[in-house]
Amino acid sequence: MDHRLAPEHAQLRRTVEEFARDEVAPVIGDFYERDAFPYEIVAKMGRMGLFGLPFPEEYGGMGGDYFALCLALEELARVDSSVAITLEAGVSLGAMPIHRFGSEEQKKTWLPRLCSGEALGAFGLTEPGGGSDASATRTTADLVDGAWVVNGTKSFITNSGTDITALATVTAVTGRRPDGRPEISAILVPSDTPGFTVGQKYSKVGWNASDTNELVFTDCRVPEANLVGRRGAGYSQFLRILDEGRIAIAALAVGLAQGCVDESLRYAAEREAFGRTIGGYQAIQFKIADMAARAHTARLAYYDAASRMLADEPFKRQAAIAKLVASNAAMDNARDATQIFGGYGFMNDYPVGRFYRDAKILEIGEGTSEVQRMLIARDLGLPA
Amino acid sequence: MNIVVLVKQVPDTATERKLRPEDNTLDRAASDGVINELDEYAIEEALLLKEKHGGEVTVLSMGPDQATDSIRKALSMGADKAVHLNDDALHGSDALQTAYALSKALGTLEFDVVVLGSESTDARTGVVGAALAEYLGLPQLTLAGKVDIEGRSIRIQRQTDYGHDVVEAELPAVVSVVEKINEPRYPSFKLIMQAKKKPVQKLTAAEAGIDVAKVGLNSAATEVVDAAAAPPRATGTVIKDEGDGGLKAAEFLAAKKFI
């Protein structure tokens, strides 16, 4: 039993910690207030190789693993969740489907740019009428004269409307299966394809320095070779991508939970009330102790899920547990940290206000907490 | 071009730093060790010089076992190999002795230019670069905000209070850099992995040809006699502008002889 990090993972964690502290923390609040995408920070993350972390060097990646990505996400989210989700979506939703299911040609064409962070990929699954129920997909892709013609609308798509967005991989109905159910496949649509329209930019409660838009496809024609993976395998492929993504979101949530501990410790040592620093009061100490315990246990949960995934063992239940407890930890810690900051916690001058706004989505995105419980229950053998 | 970059591990400035009560030397166990911040600029400059002129970047660090972490970081930024001068006899060496010891270690290496940070965040003497150049009998180009090499000629902009001086010398030379010179890169995971395989040569005082009677606490030219915490900053003077704020500010500055 050893949960200590390998030296290279420890050094990566430390490097991203320094980057987040020195490059992200001082400036991100301003982007957040303006709902602006931090291109320069994303470019720096690209130069550090963060977008290529889990991909092989032959495609421009760093030759690391998914756990390395998780560590980077945790450290970024300690300071800011917007840049963390930009990285998470870029890697595990934008590039990963191509790496895992794409053809050699697709990998050679797209991965080097995505790994460098010079281009971002998006992943279109959710639609106005359905989120985790991927089988309710309404978007269609019809094969006409050797080209897929894509029509439909995708909702809440991260990284879909930036100046550097290069493509979206979308799920679409490509026919009927013998049993009458829709055949769902994944189609890669470059963002410069005529009919690829970035729809409304959402006004969000949190993650305000990240890019989230609706995507509308109107007779969007792409070559037949843009099918990602097998025809009709779109649904099962995405389940795998979502299982992995839960570990990444858990890591991001742990980062937010830890950021709340960091900020609370700092504030408790500075802020005085009734003649002493508030860190001397048990009411504050117990809160911070609980916060640290939540962050720690959630961290162990995602470490465990990641280690199972890397060992090619089943990890669906552990990923769902990690996502569930980590998003709970983030939400609880954001509430407690804001309380410790009192009136200042309600002001946007301190990061905890941002943490509070960013925490809620963690109980919703990449499968709601209810979906996680459903997955855990099914994996325990309870009836579907 | 062979470039040697000097790297020092120092206590993290973000943590509380302490001296050991028995000999007033730095308590390295009391806080996390990190690479001296200005050394990161020196490493970056060395890597930029290599990218432009080719050659190899060698890291040289003098320090105890823990300094390995800083050496690793320098290697994962892109340096090619490292030499770690590590000997108990060096404990407590002051700035002059450090310069002497480093000059001896450099004597075991081939180099065209030595790059280092202009000072360290722990002792802040800022003299090692100059003293090292003296020991080596080489030109010293200190406080560089810009470095250019052409053939065997090296030219720097030395930062001063009033602008900069242009200083030129023949290689080999010793260059100390200030932080405006560049923006240090962050190590990528690929380089972190590669750094694990890069050679780190251990060097003892004897192997470097260092006369141990000339180094260490006992023969140091300087001695830390006492240390005290910096006094808390006094409250500033607040001038309220009632139409004459500029005048009052000027009077304040004149009284302090700033203007």
From TrEMBL, chain A:
Superkingdom field: Bacteria
GO molecular function terms listed in the Swiss-Prot or TrEMBL record: acyl-CoA dehydrogenase activity; flavin adenine dinucleotide binding
Pfam families: Acyl-CoA_dh_1 (PF00441), Acyl-CoA_dh_M (PF02770), Acyl-CoA_dh_N (PF02771)
Family annotation (SUPFAM superfamilies): Acyl-CoA dehydrogenase C-terminal domain-like, Acyl-CoA dehydrogenase NM domain-like
Residues of the Acyl-CoA dehydrogenase/oxidase C-terminal domain: 232-380
Keyword terms, alphabetized: FAD, Flavoprotein, Oxidoreductase
Residues of the Acyl-CoA dehydrogenase/oxidase N-terminal domain: 7-118
InterPro entries: Acyl-CoA_DH_CS, Acyl-CoA_Oxase/DH_mid-dom, Acyl-CoA_Oxase/DH_mid-dom_sf, AcylCo_DH-like_C, AcylCo_DH/oxidase_C, AcylCoA_DH/ox_N, AcylCoA_DH/ox_N_sf, AcylCoA_DH/oxidase_NM_dom_sf
Xref: Gene3D superfamilies: Acyl-CoA dehydrogenase/oxidase, N-terminal domain, Butyryl-CoA Dehydrogenase, subunit A, domain 2, Butyryl-CoA Dehydrogenase, subunit A, domain 3
Cofactor(s) the protein needs: FAD
Residue ranges annotated for the Acyl-CoA oxidase/dehydrogenase middle domain, each copy included: 122-220
Family recorded in the similarity comment: Belongs to the acyl-CoA dehydrogenase family.
The protein, known as: Acyl-CoA dehydrogenase
